[in-house]
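User: Sequence recovery, please. Input:
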């Protein structure tokens, strides 16, 4: 079962999200993520959180249509997005697509990336999307499809990731150890329209930029 989670982060071009939704998806909103579901015309299966960022008119709209509201205390140990991830697991999700999870709040962005580690270790496929790039959290092989010259960066989320290979890239890697403390495998580029990344042990974040960003450079800090 594929589950889409809408968080209350940055979205950018809303039209870029329309094609992501399929009829059989389970849709969960983390609190203010419901505001974006409303803008997209998407009916969530549940709205989860302390309800401090959902707009009153949006909540009223979904409540009138019997959408489940799972309200949690404002003072809690987990973010609304983490609560939504827990519920996705409880409902049997095997694949989770996360929207609105990357943006200006670096603390939330890092939290959203790291909280996927345990899910991936349990065999759940986890991906983040923005109109500018995809982030795949992986512990196995993945094929990247795009355009020749697309920027792809690879970061270890665990202390080490072993047996990392990048095939079909401008700077190939073969059976390499990547360390979280030495993130050197960034700003690689697809040599053609497809490339493959392999990892034998550990967790990687694979970041695939969908277009060349203005000012993009191998020399960026």
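Assistant: Recovered sequence (221 residues):
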């Amino acid at each position: 079962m594929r589950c889409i989670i809408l968080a209350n982060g940055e979205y950018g071009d809303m039209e870029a999200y329309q094609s992501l939704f399929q009829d059989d998806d389970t849709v969960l909103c983390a609190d203010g993520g419901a505001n974006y579901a409303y803008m997209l015309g998407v009916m969530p299966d549940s709205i989860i959180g302390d309800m401090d960022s959902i707009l009153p008119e949006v909540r009223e709209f979904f409540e009138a249509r019997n959408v489940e509201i799972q309200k949690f205390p404002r003072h809690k140990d987990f973010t609304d997005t983490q609560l939504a991830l827990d519920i996705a697991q409880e409902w049997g999700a095997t694949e989770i697509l996360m929207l609105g999870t990357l943006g200006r709040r670096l603390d939330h962005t890092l939290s959203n990336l790291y909280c996927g580690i345990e899910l991936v270790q349990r065999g759940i496929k986890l991906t983040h999307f923005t109109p500018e790039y995809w982030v795949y959290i992986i512990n196995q092989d993945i094929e990247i499809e795009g355009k020749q010259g697309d920027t792809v960066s690879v970061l270890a989320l665990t202390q080490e990731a072993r047996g990392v290979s990048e095939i079909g890239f401008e700077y190939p890697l073969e059976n390499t150890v990547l360390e979280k403390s030495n993130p050197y495998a960034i700003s690689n580029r697809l040599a053609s329209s497809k490339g493959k990344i392999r990892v034998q042990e550990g967790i990687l974040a694979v970041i695939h930029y969908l277009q060349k960003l203005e000012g993009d450079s191998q020399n960026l800090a």
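The chain is about 20% helix and 35% strand.
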